[in-house]
Amino acid sequence: MISECLVVEFRVTGDDCPLAAATRETGTVVDANPPQLRRDGNALLQCSTGADAADALASTLDDDDRLRYLHAAGAGDRVNFRCLSKHPCVVQRLTDAGFMVESMQYDDGEERYTGAVVGRDVLDGVMAAAGETVGVTLQRIYPLGSEDDQPVAERWPFTTAQEEAMRTAYEMGYFDVPRKVDASEVAAALGVSKSAFLERLRRGHAAIFDQLFG
């Protein structure tokens, strides 16, 4: 029996996998399940994005020769995608080394993985695997079920794109009362769609509130 289980969060930049490339091209935010590697070497990808960004994402994914059997289905204000990918994902390197991924998010080409490793020795192996691939940074680590007030490495758990959205909105006066600019003006300054800006803002706020009140 292993007595220690660590919750870890990785940030990945510079990946050229289909989902990272598609979100980088479209400026969308995508939530994904861990890829399921099949015996034929293909990985089953399952992800979702907001309905307002689904058409652009679908078109970009459909044009990617590394993907096949792309399927999209609406689910309320979200659209779910499923497809097979011939391109290996960075997260597969980490899972092969012992990382148990629980959630994945792609935001404008940047990835964030959250999951667990069982023991420090396994973490060492995962970090060694991370060092052999693209830019992988360990963002947070803390013991599962720890009673400590703060994690070992405390950082706000939002992506660079979300931080940029909140910072730009703050600096432009979006949070002033009354507001100096509206969402469309901040989105234009960021070079993204209004819907992409608002989604990054909501996710960033949710991350902060989770840290404060979760």
Can you give a write-up of this model?
With 214 residues, the protein is an alpha+beta fold. The chain has two domains: 139 residues, no CATH class; 54 residues. Helices cover 37% and strands 31% of the residues. It is built from seven helices and nine strands; from the N terminus they run βαβββαββαββαβααα. Strands 1, 2, 3, 4, 5, 6, 7, 8 and 9 form a nine-stranded antiparallel beta sheet that branches. Strand 3 and strand 4 form a beta hairpin. Helix 5 packs across helix 6. It is globular. The chain starts with a strand and ends with a helix. About 4% of the residues have low confidence.
Keywords:
7 helices, 214 residues, globular, 2 domains, single chain, alpha+beta
How does the major sheet shape up? 9 strands, antiparallel
Q: How many E-type strands? A: 9
Order of helices and strands: EHEEEHEEHEEHEHHH
Mean pLDDT equals 86
What is the SS-derived class? alpha+beta
> How much helix is in the residues?
25-40%
Write a short abstract of this structure.
With 214 residues, the chain is of the alpha+beta class. It has seven helices and nine strands, in the order E-H-E-E-E-H-E-E-H-E-E-H-E-H-H-H.
Write the layout of secondary structure elements.
Layout: E1 5-13, H1 18-26, E2 29-32, E3 36-37, E4 43-50, H2 51-62, E5 67-75, E6 78-85, H3 90-96, E7 100-107, E8 110-118, H4 120-130, E9 135-143, H5 160-172, H6 183-190, H7 194-213
Antiparallel strand pairs: 1-8, 1-9, 2-4, 2-7, 3-4, 4-6, 5-6, 7-8
Helix pairs in contact: 1-2, 3-4, 5-6, 5-7, 6-7
